[in-house]
């Protein structure tokens, strides 16, 4: 549905969004337009209206995903929306990563790691166009494992990330320190055992 002039009134906008011919692509274009106009606060009701009126759309998972991304600091809403996106499209690796990030921000790191691992299991994440997303998932897992003192597995994920992009200087330094840290822990354990 091509719209040359978007309505300036929220009620009129919602009436347009409810129309069956208003596709998810139209929704994304409307979002872009509203953001440019500074009407961001209208986006949640617009997304919810589109979802309510397009429940049989094959693009419903995308709408849930974008709706969740409007404000990832609203963890409860983002978590519910990302779960709905994954129910509709379980191979949606971007939703797995964002859900993992949302859970991490709620200090639910073990749950987050499950979603990051699921994203990495999807072969599509290894396509060249998805390299940045793959690096994000690898680094998120590495960081979580490092924080859980699993330095060996953390370094496996960090090294896989570096294999994709060697220009991550901070990550190179971190991997070097993990290697030194593991060596130091071996010396400490050996010293304790000798006592």
SSE inventory with pairings:
Layout: H1 10-18, H2 24-36, H3 43-53, H4 60-69, H5 75-88, H6 93-105, H7 109-121, H8 131-147, H9 151-164, H10 169-194
Report on this model:
The chain has ten helices and no strands. The chain is mainly α. The protein has a domain of 104 residues: Serine Threonine Protein Phosphatase 5, Tetratricopeptide repeat, CATH 1.25.40.10. Helix 9 packs antiparallel against helix 10. The chain is elongated and about 80 Å long.
Notable characteristics:
0% strand; 10 helices; Serine Threonine Protein Phosphatase 5, Tetratricopeptide repeat; elongated; 195 residues; mainly alpha
Q: What is the level 1 CATH name of the domain at 91-194? A: Mainly Alpha
Can you count the beta strands?
A: 0
CATH topology of the domain at 91-194: Serine Threonine Protein Phosphatase 5, Tetratricopeptide repeat
* Helical proportion, percent range: over 70%
The chain-level mean pLDDT equals 89
The CATH superfamily of the domain at 91-194 turns out to be Tetratricopeptide repeat domain
| SSE sequence, one letter per element | HHHHHHHHHH
Radius of gyration: 22 Å
Indicate the CATH architecture of the domain at 91-194: Alpha Horseshoe
First-last Cα distance: 77 Å
Please tell me what the overall shape is. elongated
Largest sheet geometry: none
Strand content: under 5%
Low-confidence stretches: none
